Amino acid sequence: MAETAVATLTKAPVHFDIVGSFLRPERLKQAQRDLNDGKISQADLTKIQDEEIKDLVEKEVKAGLHYVSDGEFRRHWWHLDTFWGFEGIKKTNVDHGYLFHDVETRAESAQVDGKIRFTDDHPDLKAFLYLKEITKDLDVIPRQSIPSPAQAYAELVRGEENIAILKKFYPKHEDLVHDLTTAYHDLYLALYAAGCRDIKLDDCTWGMLADTDFWAEQNIDQKGVDELQAEYLKINNQSLENLPEDLRISTHVCRGNYASTWAAKGGYATVANTLFTKENVESFYLEFDDDRSGDFAPLAKVPAGKQVVLGLVTSKKPELEDPQVLIDRVREASQFVPLENLALSTQCGFASTEEGNHLTEDEQWAKIKLVVDTAEKIWG
Hints:
Order of helices and strands: HEHHEHEEHEEHHHEHHHEHEEHEH
Helix content: 40-55%
Structural class: alpha/beta
Strand order of the largest sheet: 1-11-10-9-8-7-6
CATH class: Alpha Beta
Number of strands: 11
Radius of gyration: 20 Å
Largest sheet: 7 strands, parallel
CATH architecture: Alpha-Beta Barrel
Distance between the termini: 26 Å
Strand content: 5-15%
Number of domains: 1
């Protein structure tokens, strides 16, 4: 794709979008099982991933999407694979997985085993290079989604064992923050050098802090919550310093998305003063698909000129929302953010992990069509 076309698309207002992960096709799932059973090689799996990603991108283009992803088809998790890709962080098995509303996930985590740094063999860079190659002649923008640095930090201090090992390599907290944010910054620059102009930071840390029941379960008082918000903000913003001006950075704030279940609840009011006013991103992708998400009032904190992508269409259930209800909710949100700075999206990805949500691929694409068609009615 020519650079002039990229510039034109980047500047043009786009009022519909996706979060990025797609249901894994059965062929891809079977290939992963075959690799685990020793029936095929990693090279065989990579070839199948390449073919399925190419097919996915063709479907995204056909659906009319401006920003396209690789569906996260090479990942097991939306976040852990990225952490494992940094030197100094390893994959671990833990006693318990993440606790969602009705289910517990696989019990895997990430743990420091040396000094953290970015290397050129990072899987996210490899993934983007292929996505860039297959979209170079298309009028779309390939996007790379990455779990936020704050999310990585939260994982590295998850549990007493992780904390104890972390202190062996990083007795000084500021050294950890420096190395982690530098590794992320280097990843951003490597992606930019590979042609990436759109990076989305997926982040559950703010969603958890919005949940007052979570505070109580973790024995965190208001002072503790304020300190965590300041910590997460510092880590994210420090990684974003001194980046190229034409690299668009956005963030998606999630409350958990695993097998159609959720992990946190609560509106954005408790984090709005920090997240919306101080995080150095251009766009906020926010979940508003059910009552757990709260109302639109906190959007009044979003600075003028920044975009809010309203996740009004759930990716967790197959039933299609009423287009008129979506239109009315967008109009309601425009009381707090100008309509020209709003966009419509699914509330999250369809498969934040390889398990995926409980709907079919046809139902997935019907959701995306609903987003595109409804946006056309609102913005023309």
